[in-house]
Amino acid sequence: MGEEKLIASVAGSVERVNKLICVKALKTRYNGEVGDIVVGRITEVQQKRWKVDTNTRLDSVLLLSSMNLPGGELRRRSAEDELAMRGFLQEGDLISAEVQAVFSDGAVSLHTRSLKYGKLGQGVLVQVSPSLVKRQKTHFHDLPCGASVILGNNGFVWIYPSLEHKDEDAGGFIPDLEPVSLTDREVISRLQNCVVSLVTQRMMLYDTSILYCYEASLPHQIKDILKPEVMEEIVLETRQRLLEQEG
Amino acid sequence: MAGLELLSDQGYRVDGRRAGELRKIQARMGVFAQADGSAYIEQGNTKALAVVYGPHEIRGSRSRALPDRALVNCQYSSATFSTGERKRRPHGDRKSCEMGLQLRQTFEAAILTQLHPRSQIDIYVQVLQADGGTYAACVNAATLAVLDAGIPMRDFVCACSAGFVDGTALADLSHVEEAAGGPQLALALLPASGQIALLEMDARLHEDHLEWVLEAAAQAARDVHTLLDRVVRQHVHEASILLGD
C-alpha cells in the first residue's frame, strides 16, 4: 500500500500515548497477566498437570508442583501423588487460582499456592466478558448481604455462601457439602441476577457496583430483575449512586 | 418463464433496481450474548445469521492443531424454511459442505491466524431466508461476527454476486435473476487493498464479458464495505457510550 495510513485489525476504542497508538477491541478472550486471579474449570487430567478452561485462547495449565498438597505439606511430588491427581481435581471441578506465568504463545500457567485458592464448593458461576471486571487490589469480597463473591479477571464470577469458619487444615480441597439455607440461596440468586443485569447494561463489575445494584433491586422480586425495564431502572439507580459517591 | 425480462429497455430490473444497484442492507452486531461474536444481516429478502466462537483450545483431535497458526472451521447451514420449497436436510448435504469450504478459504485469507497458534476459530452461518446472494450475505454476516468477537483481521471481507444479461452486468442478484439461468459470479473482496479473497463462478461466460462482470461485482463489494464500516462504527460508538468512556 503506497499511502501512509494505519488500518486497525480490530474494531474498538483507540488509546494514544505519544507515538504509541493502541486499538483495544470491545470484547476479546481473556489475556492472562501475572498476578491475576482466575476462576476456571478442569477440562483434562494429564501427566503431572491439569488443563483448565479459563475463557482464554488456549486452555491454561495447572502443574502438579504448583498445587498445594492437602494439609499444607511441603515436599517433592512423588509418583504416588501423580497417580492420586484425580483424587484432588477431576474433570468438571471449579478452581480459583492465580496466574504464575504466561508462555510465549499466550497460554497461561496457574498456581494455587495459597490457602485462599483451591477447589470451589457450592455456589453459582456467572460468565461475563473479561473487559467488564474492574482491576482491584483484591478480588475476593465478603458482601454484607450474606454472600461472598470471587471476581475472576477472566470474566468468571463465583458467588457462594459466606463461610462462618475457615477450615485451615483442609487447604481448600474438601468441599463443604452442608445444605445451604433458603435465605442464603435467595441472596445468591439475587446477586446472580444483579450481575447479569449489570453486564447486560455494560457496567464495570466491582464490589461496590454489585452491592449498590443488590440494594437497588431489593424492592423487586428476584425473578423480575431480569425483565428489561426493571433491569434498566436498577442499573440507572446504581449508576447514579456511584456518581454521587465519587463526586 | 416466457416474457420475464430481467432488464427492461429503460434499464430497470425485475424489482425496480438499476443494473449496478444493491438491495437494501441492514445489519446488527452482537445479537447473541453467549457467543464470542455474532451478527445478523439482511440483504433485501436474504437473511443470514453468523456466530463465531474463539479463538479457543482445539476440542476433539489434538492432531489437527497447527503449530504456527489458528485453525478456521466454518459450517454453513440453511434453515428448512429458507427456500420456497421446504428443504429436507438443513446441513450435511453437498451444497452446505461446499459453502463451508468456500467460507473457510475466504476467512483463512482474511483472519490473522498467525497470532493464535494451536487454537481454533469456529464460524457458524445460518441462512434464514434465501432470496439470492446467499454466499455474499454469509460472508458479510461472518465478517461482522468476527469483528464482534475481537479477532484481528487483515481487512473487512465484503462479498457480492454479479450476473450478465443483455450485454449489461448486474450486481447483487436476487433469486429470480439467479433462477433465470444466466452466468453468475460470486466475489469476496478485501476492499482496502483490492485483493480478491474468493472468486467463484460455474457457468459459461465469454472472456470479453468477464472484465465487466468482475468490475460490477467489485464496485458492489466496495459499496457493501461502506455500509458495513458504518454499522461497525455505530456499534462501537454505542458500546463505548454505555461503558462511560
Overview of the structural elements:
The complex is a heterodimer of chains A (247) and B (245). In chain A, 23% of the residues lie in helices and 28% in strands. Chain A is an alpha+beta fold and 247 residues long. In chain A, strands 3-4-5-7-6 form a 5-stranded mixed barrel. Chain A has a 4-stranded antiparallel beta sheet with strand order 9-12-11-10, covered by helices on one side. Chain A has a two-stranded antiparallel ribbon with strand order 1-2. The model of chain A has no long low-confidence stretch (mean pLDDT 88). In chain B, helix 1 crosses helix 2 (134-148). Chain B is α+β, with helices and mostly antiparallel strands and 245 residues long. At the A-B interface, loops of A face strand 3 and helix 4 of B.
Structural descriptors:
heterodimer, A: 247 residues, alpha+beta, five-stranded mixed β-barrel, four-stranded antiparallel sheet, 5 helices, flat, B: 245 residues, Ribosomal Protein S5, domain 2, five-stranded mixed sheet, 9 strands, 28% strand, exosome (chain B)
CATH architecture of chain B: 2-Layer Sandwich
The largest contact between protein chains, plus residue counts on each side, is: A-B, 25 and 32 residues
Mean pLDDT of chain B: 91
Number of strands of chain A: 12
Distance between the amino and carboxyl termini of chain B: 58 Å
What is the CATH level 1 assignment of chain B?
Alpha Beta
Task: Please provide the ordered H/E string of secondary-structure elements of chain A.
Answer: EEEEEHHEEEEEEEHHH
| Tally of DSSP helical segments of chain B | 4
GO molecular function, one term (chain B): mRNA 3'-UTR AU-rich region binding
Domain Exoribonuclease phosphorolytic (chain B): 21-152, 155-219
Protein name (chain B): Exosome complex component RRP41
Organism (chain B): Octodon degus (Degu)
